[in-house]
Structure formats: C-alpha cells, structure tokens
Specification:
The protein is α+β, with helices and mostly antiparallel strands. It has five helices and five strands; from the N terminus they run ααααβββββα.
Length: 299
Amino acid sequence: MTYPISTRREGRAAFTLVELLVVIAIIGVLIALLLPAVQQAREAARRMSCSNNLKQMGLALHNHHDTYGHLPNSRRDAYPNWIVDTLKFLEQNNLSEQWDRSKNYYHADNQTARETAVEQLYCPSRRGPMLSEPESLQNSGSTFVVGMVADYAANVGTGTNDYANSATFTGLFRLFGTSGSGAPQGLSFRDVTDGTSNTFLVGEKHVDIQKFGVGGLDFTDGGAYNGDGFNSMRFAGPSKTLARSPADTASNIFGSYHPGICQFVFVDGSVRNIPVTINATTLGYLAARNDGEVVNTDW
C-alpha cells in the first residue's frame, strides 16, 4: 500500500518584534557585563608590557655597569643624557651611533637622533611615541627644537637636584662634571649601601595628562634625551610622593597610568609594583641608596 507524499509544509512561527527586542536587550546586557573584564585583561597585558620595558632597562643599565664599572651620569647640561648612554645596551646601536656626543642636544647634527622613537621607552597604557613641544637651550629663548618624549625616569633620590656635592643627593644617577656640582663619572653598585633589593633604579615618571610634551621646571615632559633639565629624572620621598592619578598636577615625581600602582625596576633587576598610597617616608627609603634605613617590603 502506498501513501501519497504530502506537499504541505509546516508553518514556522517568526520572531515577534517584542521577542527580537528582548534578545537584543539580553545581548546588550551580556556585552556590558563582559566589557569590564575585557578592559581589565587588556590593561593587564599593557601593564606586563610596561613591566618588561623596565626589566629591559634594568638589564641595559647592568650591562652598562659591567662594561664601564659604573652607571651612566644622569646628564650633562645641554648634552645627551643617561638614556642616550644606555641605548646601545637596549639593542639600539644604530640610534646610539647617530648621536654626536661632542655636540649638544640642540645641535642640528643631532636632529634625527633626538626625533627617533624607541618603543621600549613608552608605557602602552599611557601613549605611543610623540614629540615634545619646542625647547630652548638653557632656557635662553633661542635654538628651539623638538624631541621624542618618554615614560620612564631615573631615580635621582630624595633631594631637589642631582648634584654630586649636594648633602641631600641620595640618588643613583648624578650630574656629570669635573668640578663643582658634578662628578666625572656615574655611581657604581658598591655605592648602594642600603642594598640592591632595597633601592629602585628607574620608574614610571608622572606626567600630568594635560601637559604631555611640556618641558621646563614645572612640567618636565620635554625631550627624553635632553640633559638640559629633569625630563628623564624624578625625585621621591616625603616631599615627592607618587602621583595618585594621571591628572595629578605635581611635578618632578614618579607616577603611573596603571590604576593604583607605579612600577619600578630595582637595582637588583627585579620589577615591583608599589602602591600609590605608600607611606611617603618609606618611599624615600626606597629612593635613597645610602640612608641606612631598613625597608619593610609590606608596602
């Protein structure tokens, strides 16, 4: 017995407008719930990249110390600074060789070098490579030039300058000079009498989010390679606490764009996260290489 093949199709109910709107609303809620987790994952990746930048900088400074027996000087007025002296140990030989160290930072022969970016000098949570606003030689009002900025700074201690003969100088990087306020060469690790695990070397420098690229004494985010000021140096201690946010208007301090912490590479090569709420006195102990203070690592 055969049965006829039915040509009737069962009807399929379509989504109503209300059902469609409900589905869209649910998807929107799920996206809203997932977005913070995605942002946190991205920030964690950026923080790790920043930490790696500091790690590489610490290794480069150790290699400099192994090669020359001392750290680079913080700067030499109007000439390239410690970052330039470290470049070849950051696998930047070509850029290092482009610098004419017999001529100052502002000289036309150093234009290409001062405007060349190095990826390791930028925190991905903050910004990418950018040029400073025009700077002038020793604040003379002439010879205006621009240069690449950076997001990391050398530790010049708890005082107010990097002069080797200053009673308040406790940092790791000091001004170059044959007499007076400077010293002929940089410090060595034996000068870190508080211990290499108790003293930080380089950290994230604070830059007011409204003052990107602005140099000078108040907003030192000028050319990163410029030894004419404190663009790539920072102080820390009771009068120079860590920035609490990107909008902090304080100058010459360390600070991060990672929420709640600031990253530092210590003299022993380790990279650590320091809470921005750290006690200011304890922060000073970490910045000073020779104060004889014992630091509690439970910050």
